[in-house]
Amino acid sequence: MASDKIIKSRFFFEDEVEEKLAEVPTEEPDSWQADEKLAKVGKPYSRIDGYDKVSGTARYAFDMHLPNMAQAKTLRCPLAHARIKGIDTRKAEKLSGVLAVLTHRNTPEIKWYGTSFLFDTHLRYEGDEVACVIAETESIAEQAIKLINVDYEELDHVVDAKEAMQDSAPKLYDSGNIRNGEPGTYSRGEVEKGFAQADTVIEDTYRTQIAIHNPTEVHCSVVNWDGDRLTVWDSTQGIFRVRDGVANSLNIPLNSVRVIKKYMGGGFGSKLEAGKYTVMAALAAKQIGRPVRITLDRKEMNLAVGNRPDSVQTLKGGVKKDGTLTALFHHSYGAIGAHPSNAQCSWPLKSMYKCDNVKVEEYSVYINAGRARPFRAPGHVQGFFALESLLDDLAEKINMDPLEFRLKNYADKDQVYNIPYTSKVLREAYQKGADAIGWQNRSEKPGSGRGPVKRGIGMSSQIWWGGGGPPAYATLKLNRDGTLRVIAGTQDIGTGTYTFMAQVAAEALELPMEKVEVILGDTAVAPYCGASGGSTTAPSVSPAVRNAAENMKAKLISGAAAHLEVPESQLTYQKGMVNHKTNTDKSIAIDQLVREMGEQVMVSIGKRGANPEGYMINTFGAQFADVQVDTETGKIRVNKIVAAHDIGRVLNVKTLENQMHGGVIQGLSFALMEERVIDRYTGKVVTFNMHDYKMPTIMDMPDIEMFIVSGGDPKISSTGVKGVGEPAMIPTPAAIANAVYNAIGVRIKQLPMTPDKVLNALYR
Amino acid sequence: MHTIINKKQITLSDPMLDKNLLEFIRENLDLTGTKNGCGIGMCGSCMVLVDDKPVQACRKTVRHIVGKKLLTIEGMALADGNLHPLQQAFVDAGAIQCGFCTPGMVLAAHALLLKNNQPSRDQIRKAIHNNLCRCTGYQQIVDAIEQAAHYYRSQRNTSMHTHKIQHTVADSTSQ
User: CA nearest A311: which of A258, A244, A382?
Assistant: First the structure.
């Protein structure tokens, strides 16, 4: 059987390059070709976990109930910026039913966010953790929290990135409010020369808001100690990240921590790391010798577990009369909250179109608010809104059709690293999308429609990574009755991982789907896979499953050769049978073979192969929006979105449709509704519940038409899969914004495009 | 004082009556299929049916179900343990992603289909407009409910309507 080797693996996870040593196979099965017809993969199988989810038997971390379990709640700072002068927990501790109160005074100093602590006396935002109360019930814990007396020294606060960048602003850190003290920069070519060559130059400023992930299941953990061994049931996108984070915080060995996540109610990037709440619960559980459940409420969700940073982007673009982009410039700043994060949003401008002269300068700014975290295509959603708005305005200036303009500047290779793509099927996406939306019927004169309700059509391109890479491993266990179990340390965050893993195994071993079961989300039993983010799960783990299946086949052939006393070269594997090529008497079913070999279970291990050297792996797409704008009320209605994407091979059409629709609705929501609002005078969040933080219901849904223009990408891996979760959302707000401009002839340069902004733009 | 919960009669005591209905369902009955998403009646994750009408459990106390029938997602499956055709339709139509909003969606749809087994897509939309889904995007949920309506129509004139029978029995015992 093939031997393995260790490589240094680099690929994009969210918007940053992740580098890890990884064990990869030296031999792989032939990649499934782009147009290869497969029996199981690509078919619309229903979710194999469907029963659990519709019947109510699915137990989320939120639902875990252990005997003798206590409940924990967190006291959070009510002020935007403060220092703890004193804290008195005596009254809370005396309340009947209270079991423990944790504060900075009675817990170890555990480092968090680099320079801060689990419980820091310097509180940098409304929602910063002050104390944790453990009680018999949640309501007792909540009562006890109100009995804790904290003496706060209130400090000056700043909750706006622009203000925070001023020298006179209150400082969150001694080193100042600009992260790293300087902007992130990038340049290629000579941007000034590029602008000088242009016939038309446009400069404009675009603004996007802070948005909150708000998954329906709140962040929560249930923890239990057996002596020195800790089990954590967590609502998380990364079981191994939680294991490592908790073990590090508690200074205990990695093999003492087991993290389990079977089901979770959404994450969208907010659940990619170990939470303070989990460590607080673990400390408390140890202290009281009982299991502890800790949950956040909706207000805590809106304050303290992440957000998409806002952006103020000043873009400048130069273009020749023939449509050639000569230069692009991006200057931006965005608020990352009170702890290190990242507000960069220039990747679309750097990478989407062919342009030789590019310059970027972008600031990530600390403010007194909850820390930003990756949120479904970090940087790209806000970056594309600005870039595609600018592009449409440039196209209009030179009297060129926006789609033609984009085709004119089509990038045939990666613009940042100057290397070829493994595949790019964007032209076909433009064509499909344009046909389906009726691009030819689009009014060329914006705002020219008659009557108060005006209709418009617009579009946006999309680029993202989503190629994944090693390390990712899977184990297969073949039982003596011929049924198969797939085990991997990835997690199904709702996207359908359970189902496609079964499909890939069933495909490779030619077994019926009913014979395959999948176990994910348990660090104690499963081999390592990365966190589920960056649209990397399917492209990373599906080849590992296929590799494991090929290794299983090799074992079965070897076993059959020994049993039948024929050379391995005379045997082939087909549909659960090992057959002799010429002698039909010499064949054996795999369940019989496993029994003959005296095995209860046969095990094989598979690994994700290396990505090809010298190539960029990107997903591409284009979305087209058909909107109507009521110029009397300012209300925008999205009638239809056409989403045409290159995502490599489709694993399952049904779960793909979920991902695509879900991405589009989140994009629509970001374009029109969602916004975290902070009162600048008090520094407090005013949109902290589901009434004030607006999210779309079914009444806001447009029609959605989806086209996948790609087959498999055999250069990437043996399965040829790219990710889809983030690509689905990236172009939606920009497409809607361009459609709104096409409808009313006035550009809205700030999201969300609420009726007040539309009316102000129209009548100011 | 009695209530019928998922076709079983339960005796309620006075001190229970002021307990939050969602807490009662999740903690006292350990029926964790009913979720808690927002706590203020905005998301529909805690939707249950009381006398066939959709109710957000987080906004009610136990008093609300005295002498009435409560149906949670655990009471939806058929007597033989198989999924109710409405639940099966959610699976078949791909109307699920993370699944956290699904129990509430299923029950809101069940309430609609019990009183209107031939709903238009608009009527379906209105019936679930209080149920927030953050991942799937709704279209397949409407498809699922539309598909399931066939079953409710086919059951209308037969004596096999499991739920109607159960509810009649429940009505007589709760008086």
Answer: A382
